[in-house]
Amino acid sequence: MIGLILLAIVGIYIFAVVVATKIAMRLARGRGASQKVVRLAGIGGFLLLTLPIFWDWIPTITTHRYYCAKDSGFFLYKSPEQWMKENPGVAEKLTSKITEPDQVIERGKKIFINKQFAWTIKNDTLSWGIHQREQAVVDRATGEPIALWRDYDTGVYGSLVGGGGGGLRAWKLWMQYSTCEPGDPDPSKWVSGTKFDAIVKLIGSFGDAK
Questions:
Q1: Tens digits of per-residue pLDDT, 42-81?
Q2: Is residue 146 in some structural domain?
């Protein structure tokens, strides 16, 4: 049902754009304008209805691709195995059974995995509504990250029929990119996120064998 409604809306919109273009050309031709001016008038009529809808399309997608190429992905600064070699005997004494509550930090929160490591989750909105997601495993003793995952989407859209804060942008399906990764939009299949989750799980298991 929703699909039919969307098709109807698209059909009406395309019809309105065609009509606006033809009317603009007819008016220019009726005033004795040259063929060049008639064509420019047609372009003006076309833009009159398309710019309010598509004005932010190219800037948004271009900005998303820029951030994805520049900063996104999974970054392993030090493997858990390397950390264990540098800190012999420490991992075996850790446990994930701690009572420290999550801590609110700038743009997100910090979850304490154990006495040695914390998991930070940050969210930010950049230019053209691009949403940045960043998660890191941080050594609490040094403050240095040992693993980081950063990804971008083209913004929070909400629901097409139920609201949710997306506004008009919720209808711009052509602009909805949920990740920098190609392929499946299912978060459970994002390669970078899966690698990061594996690090969190491994560090969370420190000391479980004791």
A1: 888 888 888 888 898 999 999 999 999 999 999 999 999 9
A2: yes
Domain that holds residue 25: 1-55
Please return the burial class of 86, using the count of CB atoms within 10 Å of its CB with bins 0-12, 13-18 and 19+.
exposed
Please give the Cα distance from 116 to 123 (Å, whole number): 24
Asked whether residue 210 is assigned to any structural domain, the reply reads no
Residue 176 neighbours by CB under 8 Å, 6+ apart:
154, 157
* Residue 90 counted as domain residue: yes
Residue with structure tokens 């890191």?
136
Inter-residue contact 163 to 124 (CB < 8 Å): no
Residue 209 domain flag:
no
Phi then psi dihedrals of residue 111, to 5 deg: -105, 130
Amino acid at 93: K
